[in-house]
Design brief:
The chain is α/β, with parallel strands linked by helices. 40% of the residues lie in helices and 15% in strands. It contains 14 helices and 13 strands. It is globular, with a radius of gyration of 21 Å.
């Protein structure tokens, strides 16, 4: 955001001095606020003073969402406060979770335009739904909420701290550690995906809209934005990861093996859900209202670099497969 406009006065919540130093080294003009999501008083006070709140830290922290919306609710109606909250399309996993069906294809696709009412009234037991309700419920005249709901995020981030996403890097890590590709059930489940840089464009557009009184963006009950740029099948992604790891010399073959749910979840928390449940959606609202036009490289094109980064971080070296084969 600072790169996009130097006119913004930005405050960032950081947990400790080490994190603060990372931010300050890259963005020296950003005001650092020390605390965490459990510091409700700090969050409420900062939201009270802010015109726009970007909440990207945790999609499931009830206390933080309540504190931020309380602070924004003190704004006058003629100068409302805006909150842009990050949820996630894990919220769409609820049907497979309820049925306990993993690895199986679903034809159900949600959309954020003419299907917005369905999206904003999902069952309360759906992941992230409790916090989504807090954000969307803050619809007084002095609070303007919007939710950005990303799917599988890939690509390397640009921030001063963590630049790693989760689902595909974790699949790559587990593939490297097991020495073969990993699949849940039949491997036929679908997710949508987005490059992290394309995702950041949505946040920038919403901030720009907020600075001019909301602009053409939707806020409130219909302010819900999926951010997909295509979809993938997890079985095919498992094969792509295994092939990349084999070609780079990190595992002995490109074989993919179906593994038990218990073992997958022990390797990666919620791995069965992340790679074995369906999350299908269409991002219509951002394209229609914000002019969003994602154009970065595809998930499949990005996977070899993701595998290489994970191998480097985990201490894998070229010809590691030969070491495994030789018992070294």
């Amino acid at each position: 955001m600072r790169r996009h406009s130097k006119d913004y006065q930005v405050a960032a919540l950081v947990r400790n001095s080490d994190k603060g130093a990372q931010v300050a080294s890259q963005y020296p003009s950003v005001r650092l606020v020390y605390g965490d999501l459990d510091n409700a008083e700090i969050l409420e006070n900062e939201a009270r003073e802010a015109d726009i709140v970007l909440h990207c830290a945790d999609a499931d922290h009830v206390g933080a969402a309540e504190a931020l919306t309380r602070g924004l609710a003190t704004h006058a109606s003629e100068s409302p406060g805006y909150i842009i909250h990050t949820s996630g399309t894990g919220i769409l996993l609820f049907a497979d979770m309820e049925r306990q069906t993993y690895g199986e294809r679903s034809s159900k696709i949600y959309n954020d335009w003419d299907g917005i009412g369905e999206v904003t009234s999902l069952p309360d037991f759906a992941p992230h739904r409790n916090v989504d309700k807090i954000i969307l419920g803050a619809t007084a005249s002095n609070v303007k909420p919007a939710i950005v709901c990303p799917p599988t995020i890939y690509g390397l981030g640009r921030g001063p701290g963590n630049q790693r996403s989760h689902q595909v890097p974790e699949l790559s890590r587990c593939t490297l550690q097991k020495g073969h590709g990993i699949q849940v059930g039949a491997g036929e489940t679908f997710w949508t995906n987005v490059h992290v840089h394309d995702l950041s464009d949505v946040f920038v557009s919403l901030v720009e809209a907020a600075t001019v009184g909301g602009g053409q963006a939707s806020w409130g009950p219909e302010g819900y934005y999926f951010t997909e740029n295509g979809e993938h099948v997890w079985g095919k992604i498992a094969q792509t990861v295994a092939t990349a790891a084999h070609k780079q010399g990190f595992i002995p073959s490109a074989d993919v093996k179906v593994m038990p749910k218990k073992e997958i979840d022990e390797m990666c928390r919620y791995g069965t859900l992340l790679w074995g449940a369906n999350s299908r959606c269409q991002a219509i609202r951002a394209r229609k209202l914000l002019g969003w036009s994602p154009n970065r490289q595809s998930l499949e094109q990005d996977i070899p670099d993701t595998v290489a980064r994970e191998a480097d971080v985990r201490g894998f070296v070229k010809h590691h497969a030969a070491k495994i084969a030789g018992g070294g």
